[in-house]
Specification:
This protein is of the alpha/beta class. 43% of the residues lie in helices and 8% in strands. The chain has 14 helices and 7 strands. It has helices at 5-11, 58-83, 97-105, 120-125, 130-133, 135-138, 147-150, 161-175, 194-205, 253-271, 298-305, 309-319, 325-346, 367-386, and strands spanning 112-114, 182-187, 210-216, 219-220, 223-224, 245-249, 274-279. A 5-stranded parallel β-sheet has the order 1-2-3-7-6, with helices on both faces. It has a two-stranded antiparallel ribbon with strand order 4-5.
Length: 387
């Protein structure tokens, strides 16, 4: 029987090609988890423990609860002061207490904080005098506290500019051999600004120890998140710059502190920046000048009210016997006394010298600035003569 060449080829076993090993994905280590990290259920019950984010000590969580309660009372009092005309404007952070306090507690005293205009609660939780914190919003000075002494930059009104400042400071600290970490508070809207991308990129290239902490409260004033980005979450924005990222339930105080402590440790170890996105919600309007009912409905607000971070942490600490009725009452009383002292001090009208408007504009005043100051001084003198 004659075998054709075609049949011979079919009969001969083909040599299998060796499988090419798949190269590891260099972005895998940078990606955030698909779902936000959560350690507590909304009712305060503990979820199964996880090795990547161990639960912080109970003592730290009890202190976090205390600062959150005092911070919420401060926030309510500041809102009331605005309605009384004692403040020009006030951006509330009610509902974001876990983020406000968690960011501060994850740092050492010699680390730096770079806040936005919404971080008044974080600054009081850091121990800064509340009247000094509200000085900017009162309109009688650019910054009421000494940034160098408090290791806290002035509250930043332009969106995202502090992202660049933090990268520069953190790089400078590293250059001088210090292990200082800078934590930058930013909102979801700030991630659409060029300064955010420039700051993150610089920090990544030069391994500056910065934690970029995005509080995604769903709205950039009235613009919803869906109109800001098509990314799966804001945490993915770090991947393009080689920055490891994570997303966390921003209304879970235990998870927020655990994730931020890991991010800060990463930065302090010389591994470069880390980006954390906290999913949270702003319960109040953007500021007292905003009408939030024009862009969100009451049902949405009520749904987030059920995820209250203060009630969530209180329930958990009670289950651990770290809080009881007496302790809760004592902390509530402390917060009322804090608010009362703030009211009393803010009801004293500050004495403002108009000529201080020209102070600290430049290290050496320019001729134009000197001329403007002299002009104002002459106008004030003329007014006194008329009286």
């Amino acid at each position: 029987m004659t075998t054709t060449p075609q049949a011979a080829r079919r009969a001969t076993p083909r040599k299998r090609r060796s499988a090419t090993p798949t190269a590891p994905d260099p972005a895998a280590a940078l990606l955030p988890q698909a779902d936000p990290v959560r350690l507590l259920n909304p009712d305060g019950t503990l979820l199964p423990s996880r090795a990547d984010y161990p639960e912080p000590p109970v003592a730290a969580l009890r202190e976090m609860y205390r600062r959150m309660v005092v911070g919420r009372r401060f926030d309510a009092q500041a809102t009331a002061l605005t309605k009384q005309g004692r403040l020009a404007v006030y951006p509330s952070s009610r509902g974001q207490e876990a983020c406000q306090v968690g960011g501060v507690l994850a740092l050492r005293d010699d680390d730096w904080v770079f806040p936005t205009y919404r971080e008044s609660m974080a600054l009081t939780a850091r121990g800064i005098d509340p009247v000094e914190v509200l000085t900017l919003l009162r309109g009688d000075w650019h910054c009421g506290y000494d940034p160098a002494v408090r290791r806290t930059a002035p509250q930043c009104t332009p969106l995202a500019t502090q992202c660049v400042h933090a990268a520069g400071l953190a790089y400078g600290e590293t250059y001088q051999g210090r292990d200082t970490v800078a934590l930058v508070y930013i909102g979801d809207g700030a991630t659409s600004e060029g300064d955010f991308h420039e700051g993150v990129n610089f920090a990544a290239v030069f391994k500056a120890p910065v934690v970029y902490f995005v509080q995604n409260n769903r709205y950039a004033i009235s613009v919803p998140l869906s109109r800001q980005t098509a990314a799966p979450s804001l945490a993915y924005k770090g991947v393009g710059y080689g920055v490891p990222s994570e997303q966390v339930d921003g209304n879970d105080p235990v998870a927020v502190l655990a994730v931020l402590e890991k991010a800060v440790a990463h930065a302090r170890a010389g591994k470069g920046p880390f980006l954390v996105e906290a999913h949270t919600y702003r319960m109040e309007p953007h500021t007292n000048a905003d009408d939030a009912t024009r862009y969100r409905d009451a049902d949405e607000v009520e749904a987030w009210r059920d995820r209250d971070p203060v009630a969530r942490l209180e329930a958990y600490l009670r289950s651990r016997a770290a809080l009881d009725d007496d302790a809760v009452a004592a902390i509530a009383q402390e917060s009322e006394e804090y608010a009362a002292r703030l009211r009393e001090r803010m009801n004293v009208q500050p004495t403002v010298d108009p000529l201080t408007l020209f102070d600290h504009v430049y290290a050496q005043p320019t001729p134009q600035l000197v001329a403007q100051r002299d002009q104002v001084r002459a106008e004030l003198a003329a007014q006194e003569e008329d009286v």
